[in-house]
Automatic annotation (TrEMBL):
InterPro entries: Helicase_C-like, P-loop_NTPase. Residues 55-199 form the Helicase C-terminal domain. SUPFAM superfamilies: P-loop containing nucleoside triphosphate hydrolases (SSF52540). It catalyses: Couples ATP hydrolysis with the unwinding of duplex DNA by translocating in the 3'-5' direction. Its EC number is 5.6.2.4. Residues 1-31 are annotated as: Disordered. Belongs to the helicase family. RecQ subfamily. One of its GO terms (cellular component) is bacterial nucleoid. Signal peptide: none annotated. PROSITE patterns: HELICASE_CTER. This is DNA 3'-5' helicase. GO terms for molecular function: 3'-5' DNA helicase activity; DNA binding; four-way junction helicase activity. The lineage of its organism: Bacteria, Pseudomonadati, Pseudomonadota, Betaproteobacteria, Burkholderiales. Keywords: DNA-binding, Isomerase.
Amino acid sequence: MGRRKRRASGQGDTSAAQGGPLAQVREPASDGGLYRPNLRYRVLRFAGPEARYATALRLARDTPGAGIIHVDSMATAERLCRQLRDAGDSACSYHGKLPPATRRLRLHQFRQGARRVMVATPAFGGGMDRRDIRFVIHLRVPATLQAYYRDSCRAGRDGLPAQCTLLAPPQGGLGEAASLAAYLRGGACRWRLLLAGLGADGDEWDGCGQCDHCGGGAPAPVPVHPRLDLAALLTVAGERVLFEFTDDSSKTFMAEFVQAR
């Protein structure tokens, strides 16, 4: 199992004092450092939005404990929440179209454990302090790596293992920042890419031993969506896309040759 060569921390880093990336993301880490050894990161890529949606639903239903699903629209938040509730789960949605009193109530219910899953748009913002969150799923790609780190670090604040999953299209074209694009491409320890993108000592990283690249964040099988007739999953190397077809055969392609339809 890989490990850090030295601790990644914002302490003593001039970029934090100058309002750089570290200053923007320092809050999630309870000890002032950026590295959270209990968080397991992975990126899954899919050929179509419905496959990503179906995977978010399955992961939320199958993963024990409380969790947050980040989505891009009110319609998606309501749809996911409704399907989770129809399956007998305790879920609530959170978006800007809700009355302020309703947003406060749902936030309170989730914080107190009355709701297991929160499905939220970017209106969710900050201020979430539930310590036993076991998973954070991004069905939307955040605008920056700093935003992704901030969202994902809501998981595992009790120090116990938690899974952070980003569901993404098969390749670029999203207009993401360079550091986020590098994280999505993979090819190295996800924590190393995170730390480097946040301005910490990612280059001194020897691997976390837990992410999808290091071997600890391997995803469960992805369900086949009938409209696609296949499920596309980005494996740990970051540049290879594995397609599983309905006849149980599989084939691996380089990501640069795969396009979403």
